[in-house]
Specification:
Layout lengths: L6 E7 L12 E4 L4 H12 L7 E5 L2 E2 L4 H8 L6 E8 L6 E6 L4 E7 L2 E6 L4 E5 L4 E5 L6 E9 L3 E8 L3 E7 L9 E7 L5 E6 L5 E6 L4 E5 L8 E2 L13 E4 L3 E3 L6 E6 L7 E6 L3 E6 L4 E7 L26 E6 L6 E6 L3 E6 L7 E4 L7 E7 L2 E6 L3 E6 L12
Parallel strand pairs: 1-5, 14-19
Antiparallel strand pairs: 1-2, 3-4, 3-5, 6-31, 7-8, 8-9, 9-10, 11-12, 12-13, 13-14, 15-16, 16-17, 17-20, 18-19, 21-22, 22-23, 23-24, 25-26, 26-27, 27-28, 29-30, 30-31
Subcellular location: Nucleus, Nucleolus; Nucleus, Nucleoplasm
GO molecular function: ribonucleoprotein complex binding
Subunit structure: Component of the NOP7 complex, composed of ERB1, NOP7 and YTM1. Within the NOP7 complex ERB1 appears to interact directly with NOP7 and YTM1. The NOP7 complex also associates with the 66S pre-ribosome.
Length: 404
Amino acid sequence: MTQVLPQIQVRFTTNQRQYIVTDSAILVPTNLRRYGLSEIINHLLGTEKPIPFDFMINGEFLRSSLDEYLKIAGLSTETTLTLEYVESILPPRELSAFQHDDWISSVKIEQSMIVTGSYDNKIRIWNTSGECKQTFSGHDAPVKSIDLYCVQGERTICVSASQDRTVRAWSILEEDYNDRCGLMYECRGHKGSVECVRFDAHGNQVASASADSTINLWNTLPPDEDELVTPETSHISREKPEIYVKKPEATLLGHTGPVQAIVYDDEYGSNRLYSGGWDHSVRMWDVESRVNVDTKNSDKVILCIAYSDVNLTKITLSSHQNWVSSLTWSPVSAYILASASYDGTLKIWDIRSKTPLYTLSQRDNSKKLFCVDWNNGIIVSGGEDCQLRVYSGDKIHGESVSSE
């Protein structure tokens, strides 16, 4: 006798208009997984070539059969489930790799330009074809962090933070790499290595986080003549030209150990800042009043922070086998992010699932990854293997996830 499989009523819904099907409830076997549910959607659409889909229930991806989900959720087959579906896509492809002379500590993308900071004390500007268009020298120790701000129609400003305890600002003219590119000014005030540097959303302020347990705030106005320092009135080597030197506008105090990461809340411009560090705390600052207005404590060191304006309850994503060194959100989705780790892997996540969508491994996973960035359809990463790796990221957006 043929066994009758349990069935349940489901309603299919999607935000992808080209894939909308009937919203009437349909009876389906409870042993179906993603593949079987995809077959139903393809049948309803009448597609000639099968399209793979992923399915969500109450905002979380279905990673089991419907029957297993019902048992875990404590639901019966009398329930009518609403299944939201989105098109699945292929994982990112490695497009190229650019060789550096030393470890890559930081990387940022702006338009068709990739900028890297390295342990050889230098900042490099690359195009997406792998040509190093310009190199900035000036730091006396490894560069630990960089950030970019594009002045629309004019130039891009790069700020770099270094173990030499300084922050430097550089001017980049993307289509005209010449003598007008170069150092704008230097920021002095930290007593330890500067681990992270960030622009606010409008490019009016720069924040720097240091191993000296402080966060310094700097304005980005053109330097005054009285900020010009000559070799005769400073400790600068006589071989170096005179430079403009800025002092911090303010110093934020509160961390009890090295501050490793900072990020501005773009919604508040330059008035809200988040920081994390070796004291296991994430702190929120009111920049205008210079006050630490909230502190969240962790049982782990905070090495990196990335901000998203999606309202979420607390979640923990676990898959890396070593410290997570860098995070970046997708530029087009509030649900997708990338993480780089000392385990040598780059992972792509959708926060609606607790397992990574993709894991991108280096040829030698014993080499740590230090940085990742994502912009203009490109994901880039770098670390101990001295390779700037470039991946396609244009197909990964808020309505797309990988297969199981």
